[in-house]
Write a structure and sequence with these properties.
Elements lengths: L2 H7 L2 H8 L5 H16 L4 H20 L9 H18 L1 H4 L4 H17 L27 H11 L7 H19 L9 H18 L10 H16 L7 H11 L32 H31 L21 H4 L3
């Protein structure tokens, strides 16, 4: 059997199988004790990382001296420590991965910044050689980038972060730092152009996130935008949709019901909004049909406006960087037999 095949056969489940052996009771107790103690201690990332590394070193010595691994090869010992690390960190995952608000905020900020950059950043802005311009992964947006790198740095077995693995990891950390600090000075782009592109990207993203209007029973939320637009009109501020809204109201004004004669709202120009000051108890059955008709018309106007704004923003952009969705860190569910067999 060659080395590759032998390595593949030494799996996490081989470690669990040995832990089920009654002779491993002392090791199992040490593992459980560490997990419980770690879980109930106050979170401190740097101290937690050192504590885990010290535990793995101590357990490696215990495993090497244990009868179950008597005469074991270095490959088998290494596999056992890998299995131990996987088991322990799976149990402590919620306690150690993205467990602080600071980490979550940093993840969000990095992801949002990459999302903005993907709308306009091109390889030439980073002086990337033309031969690599077609690489789809040069500006990917992996989720929780900061937390993943921090987790690896603190809790991955240190002797595994060497050579080629260390090289790739260091490059990833450097890329994250570059993104966090990135501004116009970091790129081959004019400062004003960079700021304008960032603003346009934000507008495009915001437009894409516009959702449906509230339901009829949440009518006050609908009124506020119209009120703001009317106020702007009285101050001679331009509003592209104001004429359409005024036209809509003049054509569809249902007039007040008998119970709301004194609650008409007069706007400049004599335009009336009879339901503005109305209370729910004052509405009649006949008013419902009129309100529904107005609601549908406003929704149509709002949808058209949203589509127009979004189209206007996106039409100014020429995205050349494909968005490659990152791969989530998947948590593998560990076998529970290790605990059951030693209860």
């Amino acid at each position: 059997m060659d080395t590759t095949s032998s390595t593949q056969s030494l799996t996490f489940y081989d470690f669990l199988d040995r832990m089920r052996n009654p002779a491993s009771l002392d090791l199992v107790r040490s593992i459980k004790s560490f997990i419980v103690s770690f879980s109930f201690s106050t979170a401190n990332p740097e101290n937690d990382g050192k504590r885990l590394q010290d535990f793995l070193l101590t357990m490696e010595t215990s495993i090497r001296d244990h009868p179950l691994w008597d005469g074991a090869s270095e490959e088998e010992i290494d596999s056992a420590i890998e299995g131990l690390e996987k088991y322990v960190m799976t149990k402590l995952f919620a306690r150690t991965f993205a467990s602080s608000h600071e980490d979550a905020n940093t993840d969000q900020e990095i992801s949002e910044k990459i999302c903005l950059l993907q709308h306009f950043l091109r390889p030439e802005h980073l002086d990337i050689p033309e031969v690599f311009h077609n690489e789809a992964s040069w500006l990917a947006n992996p989720p929780q980038l900061h937390s993943n790198l921090k987790f690896i740095q603190l809790f991955r077995r240190q002797e595994k972060l060497i050579s080629e693995a260390a090289y790739y990891f260091t490059n990833l950390v450097s890329a994250k730092t570059f993104i966090v600090d990135l501004d116009a000075k970091s790129l081959s782009i004019d400062g004003t152009e960079f700021e304008e592109n960032m603003k346009t990207a934000k507008l495009a993203i915001t437009g894409a996130r516009i959702g449906p209007l509230p339901a009829l029973h949440e009518t006050p939320a609908l009124v506020n935008p119209l009120t703001r637009m009317r106020n702007k009109a009285t101050q001679n501020e331009p509003s592209p949709m104001l004429d359409e809204i005024v036209d809509l109201a003049s054509q569809s004004d249902p007039g007040p019901s008998q119970g709301m004669e004194g609650n008409e709202t007069n706007i400049s120009g004599g335009l009336r909004y009879p339901f503005m000051e109305a209370e729910a108890g004052e509405l009649t059955v006949g008013d419902v049909e009129k309100l529904l008709s107005l609601y549908k018309d406003v929704v149509k106007k709002y949808t058209s406006l949203s589509r127009a704004v979004r189209h206007l923003a996106i039409s100014k952009l020429e995205p050349s960087i494909p968005h490659q969705k990152g791969t989530n860190v998947k948590q593998e569910k560990p076998e529970e037999q290790l605990e059951k067999d030693h209860r």
